[in-house]
Amino acid sequence: MPKDKWTDLVLEVGHPPQGEWELLVRVNEQEQLRTLVNDQTAPGGWMQLKLDLRAYAGSEARLQLINGAASQGP
Fold first, then answer.
1. pLDDT tens track for 41-59
2. Measuring CA to CA, which residue among 67, 62, 70 is closest to residue 30?
């Protein structure tokens, strides 16, 4: 990551009609964001998310974007 610049990860994600999935973002193996992408969280089918990466300024960071099945609960 650049040392002297503000860096954000900006994502625009969507889902099929009546579809649902879970987005997980990890930075250096640490979970930074977990959210469902569905009709409630993404009205109209799309949502935009922003993750502040300033904590990693001046260093290398491994980003993982994981598309997972939505949990069905207990």
1. 999 999 999 999 999 999 9
2. 62
